[in-house]
Protein backbone atom coordinates (compact mmCIF):
# COMPACT_ATOMS: atom_id res chain seq x y z
CA UNK A 1 0.00 0.00 0.00
CA UNK A 2 2.88 2.37 0.71
CA UNK A 3 4.20 2.03 -2.82
CA UNK A 4 0.75 2.76 -4.16
CA UNK A 5 0.48 5.96 -2.14
CA UNK A 6 3.78 7.15 -3.53
CA UNK A 7 2.18 7.61 -6.93
CA UNK A 8 0.80 11.04 -6.15
CA UNK A 9 -2.25 9.92 -4.20
CA UNK A 10 -3.80 7.93 -7.00
CA UNK A 11 -5.73 6.03 -4.32
CA UNK A 12 -8.02 8.21 -2.27
CA UNK A 13 -8.40 7.81 1.48
CA UNK A 14 -12.02 6.77 1.07
CA UNK A 15 -10.88 3.89 -1.14
CA UNK A 16 -8.95 2.31 1.74
CA UNK A 17 -10.78 -0.35 3.74
CA UNK A 18 -10.68 -0.85 7.50
CA UNK A 19 -7.81 -3.31 7.26
CA UNK A 20 -5.70 -0.80 5.30
CA UNK A 21 -6.06 -2.55 1.95
CA UNK A 22 -7.41 -1.08 -1.26
CA UNK A 23 -9.82 -2.47 -3.84
CA UNK A 24 -7.36 -1.31 -6.52
CA UNK A 25 -4.48 -3.23 -4.96
CA UNK A 26 -4.07 -6.93 -5.56
CA UNK A 27 -1.43 -9.29 -4.34
CA UNK A 28 -0.13 -10.45 -7.71
CA UNK A 29 0.38 -14.17 -7.88
CA UNK A 30 3.71 -14.87 -9.49
CA UNK A 31 2.79 -17.08 -12.38
CA UNK A 32 4.86 -20.25 -12.35
CA UNK A 33 6.61 -21.50 -15.50
CA UNK A 34 4.37 -24.59 -15.37
CA UNK A 35 1.17 -25.38 -13.52
CA UNK A 36 1.31 -28.01 -10.78
CA UNK A 37 -1.03 -30.18 -12.78
CA UNK A 38 0.36 -29.25 -16.17
CA UNK A 39 4.12 -29.54 -16.56
CA UNK A 40 4.07 -29.90 -20.33
CA UNK A 41 4.73 -26.28 -21.35
CA UNK A 42 5.92 -23.04 -19.77
CA UNK A 43 3.65 -20.06 -19.09
CA UNK A 44 4.45 -16.44 -19.94
CA UNK A 45 6.01 -16.01 -16.48
CA UNK A 46 9.21 -17.26 -18.09
CA UNK A 47 8.88 -15.30 -21.30
CA UNK A 48 9.96 -17.06 -24.53
CA UNK A 49 12.96 -15.80 -26.50
CA UNK A 50 12.29 -13.67 -29.57
CA UNK A 51 11.94 -15.85 -32.66
CA UNK A 52 9.97 -13.46 -34.88
CA UNK A 53 12.64 -11.21 -36.44
CA UNK A 54 13.76 -13.49 -39.26
CA UNK A 55 14.29 -10.67 -41.78
CA UNK A 56 16.81 -8.89 -39.50
CA UNK A 57 14.74 -5.74 -39.08
CA UNK A 58 17.26 -4.51 -36.53
CA UNK A 59 19.41 -3.60 -39.53
CA UNK A 60 16.81 -0.94 -40.40
CA UNK A 61 17.25 0.79 -37.02
CA UNK A 62 19.81 3.20 -35.66
CA UNK A 63 21.89 2.20 -32.67
CA UNK A 64 19.76 4.43 -30.43
CA UNK A 65 16.57 2.78 -31.70
CA UNK A 66 18.03 -0.68 -31.08
CA UNK A 67 19.05 0.35 -27.57
CA UNK A 68 15.48 1.51 -26.83
CA UNK A 69 14.14 -1.76 -28.18
CA UNK A 70 16.37 -4.05 -26.15
CA UNK A 71 16.27 -2.25 -22.82
CA UNK A 72 12.47 -2.13 -23.09
CA UNK A 73 12.38 -5.84 -23.98
CA UNK A 74 14.55 -6.73 -20.98
CA UNK A 75 12.33 -4.73 -18.61
CA UNK A 76 9.12 -6.25 -19.92
CA UNK A 77 10.39 -9.83 -19.84
CA UNK A 78 11.92 -9.56 -16.36
CA UNK A 79 9.64 -7.16 -14.48
CA UNK A 80 6.24 -7.38 -16.17
CA UNK A 81 5.79 -10.84 -17.67
CA UNK A 82 5.85 -12.73 -14.32
CA UNK A 83 2.97 -10.72 -12.79
CA UNK A 84 0.87 -9.08 -15.49
CA UNK A 85 -1.54 -11.97 -16.13
CA UNK A 86 -2.98 -11.60 -12.62
CA UNK A 87 -3.42 -7.85 -13.03
CA UNK A 88 -5.18 -8.53 -16.32
CA UNK A 89 -7.40 -11.15 -14.66
CA UNK A 90 -8.40 -8.69 -11.91
CA UNK A 91 -8.78 -5.75 -14.34
CA UNK A 92 -6.34 -3.85 -12.14
CA UNK A 93 -3.62 -1.44 -13.17
CA UNK A 94 -0.05 -2.32 -12.05
CA UNK A 95 0.79 0.97 -10.31
CA UNK A 96 3.84 -0.55 -8.66
CA UNK A 97 5.48 -1.04 -12.07
CA UNK A 98 5.26 2.64 -13.08
CA UNK A 99 8.29 3.93 -11.11
CA UNK A 100 10.35 1.11 -12.58
CA UNK A 101 9.09 1.85 -16.09
CA UNK A 102 10.06 5.50 -15.59
CA UNK A 103 13.71 4.42 -15.49
CA UNK A 104 13.46 3.43 -19.16
CA UNK A 105 13.29 7.15 -20.03
CA UNK A 106 10.34 6.74 -22.37
CA UNK A 107 8.16 9.56 -21.00
CA UNK A 108 7.53 12.20 -23.63
CA UNK A 109 8.84 10.01 -26.46
CA UNK A 110 9.39 12.28 -29.49
CA UNK A 111 9.16 15.58 -27.57
CA UNK A 112 12.47 17.44 -27.26
CA UNK A 113 13.39 19.31 -24.09
CA UNK A 114 11.44 19.67 -20.84
CA UNK A 115 13.01 16.44 -19.56
CA UNK A 116 11.75 14.41 -22.54
CA UNK A 117 14.07 12.11 -24.51
CA UNK A 118 13.35 13.45 -28.01
CA UNK A 119 13.30 9.97 -29.55
CA UNK A 120 12.73 9.31 -33.22
CA UNK A 121 9.32 8.04 -34.27
CA UNK A 122 10.91 4.64 -34.88
CA UNK A 123 12.56 4.66 -31.47
CA UNK A 124 9.19 5.34 -29.88
CA UNK A 125 7.65 2.57 -31.99
CA UNK A 126 10.28 0.08 -30.81
CA UNK A 127 9.27 0.77 -27.21
CA UNK A 128 5.60 0.34 -28.13
CA UNK A 129 6.07 -3.03 -29.82
CA UNK A 130 8.31 -4.42 -27.08
CA UNK A 131 5.81 -3.42 -24.39
CA UNK A 132 2.89 -4.79 -26.44
CA UNK A 133 4.79 -8.06 -27.02
CA UNK A 134 4.34 -8.83 -23.31
CA UNK A 135 1.23 -6.79 -22.50
CA UNK A 136 -0.94 -4.63 -24.75
CA UNK A 137 -2.51 -2.85 -21.76
CA UNK A 138 0.83 -1.41 -20.68
CA UNK A 139 1.56 -0.30 -24.24
CA UNK A 140 -1.81 1.48 -24.35
CA UNK A 141 -1.10 3.13 -20.99
CA UNK A 142 2.21 4.62 -22.19
CA UNK A 143 0.82 5.48 -25.62
CA UNK A 144 -2.11 7.45 -24.15
CA UNK A 145 0.27 9.23 -21.80
CA UNK A 146 2.97 9.97 -24.41
CA UNK A 147 1.38 10.15 -27.84
CA UNK A 148 -1.92 11.73 -26.85
CA UNK A 149 -1.75 13.69 -23.58
CA UNK A 150 1.92 14.76 -23.60
CA UNK A 151 2.10 15.25 -27.36
CA UNK A 152 -0.94 17.54 -27.30
CA UNK A 153 0.77 19.68 -24.67
CA UNK A 154 4.09 19.53 -26.51
CA UNK A 155 2.58 20.64 -29.81
CA UNK A 156 -0.28 22.92 -28.80
CA UNK A 157 0.34 24.31 -25.29
CA UNK A 158 1.91 27.62 -24.31
CA UNK A 159 5.54 27.76 -23.25
CA UNK A 160 4.43 28.29 -19.66
CA UNK A 161 2.16 25.25 -19.78
CA UNK A 162 4.95 23.11 -21.24
CA UNK A 163 7.44 24.15 -18.57
CA UNK A 164 4.96 23.41 -15.80
CA UNK A 165 3.55 20.08 -16.99
CA UNK A 166 5.98 18.22 -19.22
CA UNK A 167 8.90 17.55 -16.82
CA UNK A 168 6.75 15.71 -14.25
CA UNK A 169 4.93 13.87 -17.01
CA UNK A 170 8.24 12.86 -18.63
CA UNK A 171 9.35 11.24 -15.37
CA UNK A 172 5.90 9.59 -14.96
CA UNK A 173 5.41 11.43 -11.66
CA UNK A 174 2.23 12.77 -13.21
CA UNK A 175 0.12 10.71 -15.59
CA UNK A 176 -1.94 12.05 -18.48
CA UNK A 177 -5.20 11.13 -20.19
CA UNK A 178 -6.89 12.44 -23.33
CA UNK A 179 -10.61 13.11 -23.52
CA UNK A 180 -12.07 13.29 -27.02
CA UNK A 181 -14.49 10.36 -27.50
CA UNK A 182 -18.04 10.79 -26.21
CA UNK A 183 -20.90 8.34 -25.59
CA UNK A 184 -22.81 9.61 -28.64
CA UNK A 185 -19.80 10.26 -30.86
CA UNK A 186 -17.16 7.60 -31.39
CA UNK A 187 -16.13 7.41 -35.04
CA UNK A 188 -17.80 10.77 -35.73
CA UNK A 189 -15.54 12.56 -33.24
CA UNK A 190 -15.90 15.96 -34.90
CA UNK A 191 -19.54 16.02 -33.78
CA UNK A 192 -18.52 16.19 -30.10
CA UNK A 193 -21.10 17.84 -27.85
CA UNK A 194 -19.12 18.81 -24.74
CA UNK A 195 -19.21 22.56 -24.27
CA UNK A 196 -16.89 25.26 -22.95
CA UNK A 197 -18.62 28.46 -21.83
CA UNK A 198 -16.49 31.56 -21.32
CA UNK A 199 -16.89 33.21 -17.92
CA UNK A 200 -14.85 35.74 -16.01
CA UNK A 201 -11.39 34.35 -15.38
CA UNK A 202 -11.89 31.05 -17.17
CA UNK A 203 -14.23 28.51 -18.72
CA UNK A 204 -17.05 26.27 -17.52
CA UNK A 205 -16.99 22.80 -19.04
CA UNK A 206 -20.02 20.53 -19.40
CA UNK A 207 -20.36 17.21 -21.13
CA UNK A 208 -19.56 13.51 -21.11
CA UNK A 209 -16.56 11.54 -22.36
CA UNK A 210 -16.26 7.76 -22.75
CA UNK A 211 -13.50 5.18 -23.16
CA UNK A 212 -10.86 7.54 -21.79
CA UNK A 213 -7.75 5.52 -20.94
CA UNK A 214 -5.91 6.29 -17.65
CA UNK A 215 -8.76 8.59 -16.64
CA UNK A 216 -9.55 7.00 -13.27
CA UNK A 217 -6.16 7.98 -11.87
CA UNK A 218 -4.71 10.58 -14.30
CA UNK A 219 -3.34 13.78 -12.82
CA UNK A 220 -3.90 15.70 -16.06
CA UNK A 221 -6.69 15.17 -18.59
CA UNK A 222 -6.74 17.00 -21.92
CA UNK A 223 -10.43 17.69 -22.55
CA UNK A 224 -11.73 18.66 -25.98
CA UNK A 225 -14.87 20.80 -25.92
CA UNK A 226 -16.75 23.16 -28.23
CA UNK A 227 -16.72 26.86 -27.43
CA UNK A 228 -20.23 28.22 -26.86
CA UNK A 229 -19.15 31.49 -28.48
CA UNK A 230 -17.20 30.47 -31.58
CA UNK A 231 -18.65 26.93 -31.98
CA UNK A 232 -15.06 25.82 -32.63
CA UNK A 233 -13.36 22.99 -30.70
CA UNK A 234 -10.84 24.02 -28.04
CA UNK A 235 -8.74 21.95 -25.61
CA UNK A 236 -8.31 22.39 -21.87
CA UNK A 237 -6.14 21.02 -19.08
CA UNK A 238 -8.37 19.51 -16.40
CA UNK A 239 -6.62 18.36 -13.23
CA UNK A 240 -7.46 15.54 -10.88
CA UNK A 241 -9.74 16.63 -8.04
CA UNK A 242 -11.26 19.65 -9.77
CA UNK A 243 -14.81 20.45 -8.71
CA UNK A 244 -17.28 19.27 -11.32
CA UNK A 245 -15.01 16.48 -12.62
CA UNK A 246 -16.06 12.89 -11.97
CA UNK A 247 -14.79 9.64 -13.48
CA UNK A 248 -16.32 6.18 -13.44
CA UNK A 249 -14.40 3.06 -14.46
CA UNK A 250 -15.86 1.04 -17.31
CA UNK A 251 -16.21 -2.50 -15.99
CA UNK A 252 -16.46 -5.98 -17.50
CA UNK A 253 -14.20 -5.47 -20.51
CA UNK A 254 -12.83 -8.51 -22.32
CA UNK A 255 -9.86 -6.58 -23.71
CA UNK A 256 -7.06 -4.36 -22.36
CA UNK A 257 -8.29 -5.21 -18.90
CA UNK A 258 -5.43 -3.46 -17.10
CA UNK A 259 -6.24 -0.17 -18.83
CA UNK A 260 -8.49 1.90 -16.60
CA UNK A 261 -10.93 3.20 -19.21
CA UNK A 262 -13.49 5.58 -17.78
CA UNK A 263 -16.58 7.61 -18.40
CA UNK A 264 -15.89 11.26 -17.58
CA UNK A 265 -18.63 13.54 -16.28
CA UNK A 266 -18.11 17.30 -16.51
CA UNK A 267 -20.76 19.21 -14.59
CA UNK A 268 -20.05 22.95 -14.46
CA UNK A 269 -16.34 22.18 -14.15
CA UNK A 270 -14.51 25.52 -13.92
CA UNK A 271 -11.00 25.79 -15.33
CA UNK A 272 -8.97 29.04 -15.35
CA UNK A 273 -7.93 30.82 -18.53
CA UNK A 274 -4.46 29.38 -18.03
CA UNK A 275 -5.90 25.89 -18.61
CA UNK A 276 -6.83 26.53 -22.25
CA UNK A 277 -4.33 25.31 -24.85
CA UNK A 278 -3.70 28.32 -27.13
CA UNK A 279 -2.64 26.14 -30.08
CA UNK A 280 -6.10 24.60 -30.44
CA UNK A 281 -8.61 26.66 -32.41
CA UNK A 282 -10.60 24.04 -34.32
CA UNK A 283 -11.19 20.30 -34.54
CA UNK A 284 -8.56 20.11 -37.29
CA UNK A 285 -5.89 20.64 -34.65
CA UNK A 286 -6.56 17.11 -33.32
CA UNK A 287 -4.93 15.80 -36.50
CA UNK A 288 -1.57 17.23 -35.41
CA UNK A 289 -1.67 14.78 -32.51
CA UNK A 290 -3.47 11.86 -34.12
CA UNK A 291 -0.92 11.73 -36.94
CA UNK A 292 1.66 10.24 -34.56
CA UNK A 293 -0.71 8.36 -32.27
CA UNK A 294 -2.22 6.50 -35.22
CA UNK A 295 1.27 5.39 -36.25
CA UNK A 296 1.83 4.02 -32.75
CA UNK A 297 -1.52 2.22 -32.75
CA UNK A 298 -0.59 0.65 -36.09
CA UNK A 299 2.60 -0.69 -34.46
CA UNK A 300 0.79 -2.23 -31.48
CA UNK A 301 -0.47 -5.33 -33.36
CA UNK A 302 3.11 -5.96 -34.54
CA UNK A 303 4.23 -6.28 -30.92
CA UNK A 304 1.20 -8.29 -29.83
CA UNK A 305 1.61 -10.77 -32.69
CA UNK A 306 5.36 -11.05 -32.13
CA UNK A 307 4.72 -12.13 -28.54
CA UNK A 308 2.05 -14.62 -29.60
CA UNK A 309 4.33 -16.09 -32.26
CA UNK A 310 7.24 -16.40 -29.85
CA UNK A 311 5.02 -18.17 -27.33
CA UNK A 312 3.66 -20.53 -29.97
CA UNK A 313 7.11 -21.48 -31.27
CA UNK A 314 8.20 -22.51 -27.80
CA UNK A 315 4.91 -24.19 -26.96
CA UNK A 316 4.82 -26.46 -30.03
CA UNK A 317 8.36 -27.54 -29.26
CA UNK A 318 7.52 -28.46 -25.66
CA UNK A 319 4.06 -29.97 -26.07
CA UNK A 320 3.76 -33.51 -27.44
CA UNK A 321 0.78 -35.36 -28.85
CA UNK A 322 0.64 -38.73 -30.61
CA UNK A 323 4.19 -39.34 -29.45
CA UNK A 324 5.71 -36.33 -31.24
CA UNK A 325 6.17 -32.58 -30.62
CA UNK A 326 3.33 -30.48 -32.00
CA UNK A 327 5.90 -28.61 -34.07
CA UNK A 328 6.51 -31.71 -36.19
CA UNK A 329 2.99 -31.69 -37.66
CA UNK A 330 2.37 -30.15 -41.08
CA UNK A 331 -0.76 -28.19 -40.12
CA UNK A 332 1.06 -26.65 -37.15
CA UNK A 333 3.96 -25.56 -39.33
CA UNK A 334 1.60 -24.00 -41.89
CA UNK A 335 -0.03 -21.87 -39.19
CA UNK A 336 3.36 -20.76 -37.87
CA UNK A 337 4.51 -19.84 -41.38
CA UNK A 338 1.37 -17.77 -41.96
CA UNK A 339 1.76 -15.99 -38.62
CA UNK A 340 5.40 -15.20 -39.31
CA UNK A 341 4.61 -13.85 -42.78
CA UNK A 342 1.98 -11.55 -41.34
CA UNK A 343 4.39 -10.18 -38.74
CA UNK A 344 7.12 -9.46 -41.30
CA UNK A 345 4.69 -7.64 -43.61
CA UNK A 346 3.13 -5.69 -40.72
CA UNK A 347 6.55 -4.55 -39.50
CA UNK A 348 7.65 -3.37 -42.94
CA UNK A 349 4.43 -1.47 -43.56
CA UNK A 350 4.70 0.33 -40.21
CA UNK A 351 8.41 0.97 -40.70
CA UNK A 352 7.76 2.64 -44.06
CA UNK A 353 4.89 4.69 -42.60
CA UNK A 354 7.15 5.91 -39.79
CA UNK A 355 9.90 6.88 -42.24
CA UNK A 356 7.40 8.75 -44.41
CA UNK A 357 6.26 10.71 -41.36
CA UNK A 358 9.84 11.64 -40.49
CA UNK A 359 10.34 12.80 -44.10
CA UNK A 360 7.13 14.88 -44.00
CA UNK A 361 5.49 12.70 -46.66
CA UNK A 362 2.91 10.76 -44.62
CA UNK A 363 -0.77 11.35 -45.31
CA UNK A 364 -3.72 10.62 -43.06
CA UNK A 365 -4.96 8.16 -45.66
CA UNK A 366 -1.71 6.18 -45.45
CA UNK A 367 -1.82 6.17 -41.64
CA UNK A 368 -5.41 4.93 -41.64
CA UNK A 369 -4.66 2.28 -44.27
CA UNK A 370 -1.76 0.96 -42.18
CA UNK A 371 -3.72 0.93 -38.93
CA UNK A 372 -6.66 -0.83 -40.57
CA UNK A 373 -4.43 -3.43 -42.23
CA UNK A 374 -2.22 -4.28 -39.24
CA UNK A 375 -5.21 -4.72 -36.94
CA UNK A 376 -6.94 -6.94 -39.52
CA UNK A 377 -3.85 -9.12 -39.95
CA UNK A 378 -3.26 -8.95 -36.20
CA UNK A 379 -6.68 -10.42 -35.57
CA UNK A 380 -5.90 -13.30 -37.92
CA UNK A 381 -2.49 -13.93 -36.35
CA UNK A 382 -3.64 -14.11 -32.73
CA UNK A 383 -6.52 -16.36 -33.80
CA UNK A 384 -4.01 -18.78 -35.35
CA UNK A 385 -2.02 -18.68 -32.11
CA UNK A 386 -5.13 -19.50 -30.12
CA UNK A 387 -5.65 -22.56 -32.35
CA UNK A 388 -2.07 -23.73 -31.88
CA UNK A 389 -2.33 -23.74 -28.08
CA UNK A 390 -5.53 -25.76 -28.00
CA UNK A 391 -7.15 -25.62 -24.56
CA UNK A 392 -4.29 -23.55 -23.16
CA UNK A 393 -5.13 -20.97 -25.79
CA UNK A 394 -7.93 -19.70 -23.55
CA UNK A 395 -5.76 -19.43 -20.41
CA UNK A 396 -4.29 -15.96 -19.84
CA UNK A 397 -1.11 -17.34 -18.22
CA UNK A 398 -0.06 -18.65 -21.63
CA UNK A 399 -0.27 -15.10 -23.10
CA UNK A 400 -2.24 -15.98 -26.23
CA UNK A 401 -5.71 -15.73 -24.67
CA UNK A 402 -4.84 -12.34 -23.20
CA UNK A 403 -3.50 -11.12 -26.53
CA UNK A 404 -6.53 -12.57 -28.34
CA UNK A 405 -8.84 -10.41 -26.24
CA UNK A 406 -6.62 -7.32 -26.37
CA UNK A 407 -6.52 -7.29 -30.18
CA UNK A 408 -10.27 -6.77 -30.23
CA UNK A 409 -9.89 -3.36 -28.57
CA UNK A 410 -7.08 -2.25 -30.85
CA UNK A 411 -9.10 -3.33 -33.90
CA UNK A 412 -11.68 -0.74 -32.85
CA UNK A 413 -9.95 2.18 -31.13
CA UNK A 414 -8.33 5.19 -32.83
CA UNK A 415 -10.88 4.62 -35.57
CA UNK A 416 -12.66 1.36 -36.25
CA UNK A 417 -11.39 -0.86 -39.04
CA UNK A 418 -14.27 0.29 -41.24
CA UNK A 419 -13.68 4.01 -40.71
CA UNK A 420 -9.95 3.72 -41.30
CA UNK A 421 -10.63 1.66 -44.42
CA UNK A 422 -12.94 4.42 -45.66
CA UNK A 423 -10.26 7.04 -45.04
CA UNK A 424 -7.93 4.90 -47.13
CA UNK A 425 -10.67 4.56 -49.75
CA UNK A 426 -11.02 8.33 -49.89
CA UNK A 427 -7.32 8.51 -50.69
CA UNK A 428 -7.75 5.99 -53.51
CA UNK A 429 -10.88 7.44 -55.13
CA UNK A 430 -10.88 11.06 -54.05
CA UNK A 431 -14.43 10.59 -52.78
CA UNK A 432 -15.56 10.44 -49.15
CA UNK A 433 -18.00 7.68 -48.25
CA UNK A 434 -18.46 8.22 -44.53
CA UNK A 435 -22.11 9.21 -44.63
CA UNK A 436 -24.81 6.94 -45.91
CA UNK A 437 -26.35 7.95 -49.22
CA UNK A 438 -29.79 9.58 -48.84
CA UNK A 439 -32.60 7.12 -49.16
CA UNK A 440 -34.75 7.39 -52.25
CA UNK A 441 -38.37 6.42 -52.04
CA UNK A 442 -39.49 4.48 -55.12
CA UNK A 443 -42.25 6.17 -57.09
CA UNK A 444 -45.62 4.58 -56.82
CA UNK A 445 -46.37 2.68 -60.00
CA UNK A 446 -49.91 1.60 -60.61
CA UNK A 447 -50.19 -1.92 -61.88
UniProtKB/TrEMBL annotation:
Region of interest: Disordered: 1-22
Boundaries of every Acyl-CoA dehydrogenase/oxidase N-terminal domain copy: 62-171
Cited SUPFAM superfamilies: Acyl-CoA dehydrogenase C-terminal domain-like, Acyl-CoA dehydrogenase NM domain-like
Start and end residues of each Acyl-CoA oxidase/dehydrogenase middle domain: 178-269
Origin: domain of life: Eukaryota
Domain Acyl-CoA dehydrogenase/oxidase C-terminal intervals: 286-427
PANTHER family the UniProt entry points to: ACYL-COA DEHYDROGENASE, ACYL-COENZYME A OXIDASE
Entry similarity comment: Belongs to the acyl-CoA dehydrogenase family.
One Gene Ontology cellular component annotation held by this UniProt entry: peroxisome
GO annotation terms (biological process): fatty acid beta-oxidation
Protein's recorded name: Acyl-coenzyme A oxidase 4, peroxisomal
Comp. bias intervals (Basic and acidic residues): 1-15
Molecular-function GO term, any one: acyl-CoA dehydrogenase activity
The organism of origin for this protein: Coccomyxa viridis
Cofactor(s) listed in the protein's UniProt record: FAD
Keywords: FAD, Flavoprotein, Oxidoreductase
PROSITE patterns the record matches: ACYL_COA_DH_1, ACYL_COA_DH_2
